[in-house]
Design goal:
It is a single chain. This protein is mainly α. The chain is built from 4 helices and no strands. The chain has one domain. The longest helix is centred in the C-terminal third of the chain and has 26 residues, at 56-81. The model has no long low-confidence stretch (mean pLDDT 90).
Length: 89
C-alpha cells in the first residue's frame, strides 16, 4: 500500500497553483506603506545598488498591478484546474 496516492499528490499541486498566487496577491494588497517602502529599498539596493532608484509611486502602482494579476491568475487557474473535477463527479 503506497503512502501517498498519485492522484492526491496531483490534487495538492493543483491546489497550490490555485491558492498560492491569491495569497501572495492579497498579502501585497493589504501590506502597510512602511513594509512596501522597506521592500522597495531592499529591492533597489540589491538590483541597482542604491535604495531609492525607483520612485515610490511607480513602485506601488507596479506591485498593485502585479497583485491584481496574481489574483486573476488564481481565479483562472482555479476555473481551469479544479472546476472540471467537481463538475463531472
Amino acid at each position: 500500500m503506497p503512502l501517498l496516492n498519485i492522484g492526491f499528490a496531483i490534487l495538492i499541486i493543483k491546489m497550490l497553483i490555485c491558492i498560492l498566487p491569491a495569497v501572495l496577491g492579497i498579502v501585497i494588497i493589504v501590506s502597510s506603506e512602511e513594509s512596501k517602502r522597506e521592500f522597495r529599498n531592499k529591492f533597489c539596493r540589491q538590483v541597482f545598488g542604491i535604495s531609492n532608484a525607483i520612485p515610490y509611486v511607480k513602485f506601488t502602482r507596479t506591485i498593485g498591478v502585479l497583485s491584481v494579476l496574481l489574483l486573476a491568475f488564481s481565479l483562472v487557474s482555479t476555473w481551469l484546474l479544479l472546476r472540471p473535477m467537481f463538475l463531472f463527479e
